[in-house]
Amino acid sequence: MKNFYFYFSFLIGMLCWVSCSDDNGTNVPPADTPEATIEGSTFGELQGYENAANGFTTLIPGNLGDPLYIQDGQLTGSVYLFAADNASRLDGMAARPGEDGWNATAAIAENKCYWVRHTSSLLYTYLKLRIAYIEGNKVGVEYIIDSTEERDPTAENVNANTPIEGKKYVTDFAMPHLNAEHTYVEHLVAYEDAELLNYALEWDAKKRHSAWVTFYFDAVTKQNTTGRNEEWATDPLVPEGTCPVEADHKSDGFDKGHLCASNDRKFSAEANEQTYYYSNMSPMLSSFNGGFWASFEILVQDWGRSNDYDKVYVTKGGTLDQLLVNFTGTQNGNDGVLPKTDANGMTIHGLPCPKYYFMAVLAEKGDTFYAIGFWMEHRDDYGYEYDEFAPADVMKKYAVSIDDLEKNTGLDFFCNLPDSVEDAVESAWNETDWTW
Fold it and tell me: What is the CATH number of the domain that holds 263?
């Protein structure tokens, strides 16, 4: 099987002339093809070196289906890693490196050569790539598919969650790495003849707040077939006496802000009802909840319900180790009360109020994964309100890589991915992987 993949990929590399896209998405060759430095190589041309606004294109090597492009003057791509080589020609490159020495980006310099590794769930595909020329905003590349290597998706994963009897979703790709000091909860729903995960959470009983909630959109759960069911309730699965009640949220100036949104779970009435557990609530400033935070919720829901991805995994939460201390709001909440917190970051009823909120998103399409994070300060002066949502250009400013989000939160997202896939997709976020 390995030889088949090698020869198939080699043949595609020889037959494929160019895979760079113009502004209309059509494949076009560079105007003047340079001299090849290895037999069977392919040339492509990228734009966006000096200024992406003056022209931006992507390149899809061979049959890999995933784009390479220029970001901040460097080559990058969501499922690609790069390793520099000292050669100036593809036929003079040294043997490809081992596991060390791979980076998420490659500095662009004329006649610079790189090993490039594309990661899918079943294969590593290795390419040799050279920067053939730089002409203003244009960068020409020469590349050839060198080899493929079968991967074992069940290979050792050093940070994966340990299976827990009776918790069949703990090893799902959606799950962050569990904290043994917290309570892990899976909320399931009956759907037709199956029992599905609605959402899961990790409960911090000491702070009476979820450390995170997680769920996914797939062919079933992305359906939007039921309305909101606002029957607020205590969560029956968190330790008794630790779940907030309605009185803890009354007349405090804050909204009961959903982590897993009501509109995230519209595929069944039972699924929507479970989003109204108080364990899924966080004290949010009204304009933040209904305007700024809601903007990101709508964006992620659009991704989850689109046909662009097979499955979209989402984790949301607020920072329990970084609280909004000694805060007084600039405007009254929806209850007419000015929101305030004390020196410990607690509301008047003793609920922790996060200083930051976050979302971690992983999309799966065939054998390919894409990831992006969002990190935002909890404020009431963003200028967005209910039905007045932030535009895409604003939301992009709050996008971060999953690696950076993990540094900010102390959480280990998507830990059940094979380590090589996890390392590749978490190192950087790429704008073109997502529909804005």
Answer: 3.40.570.10
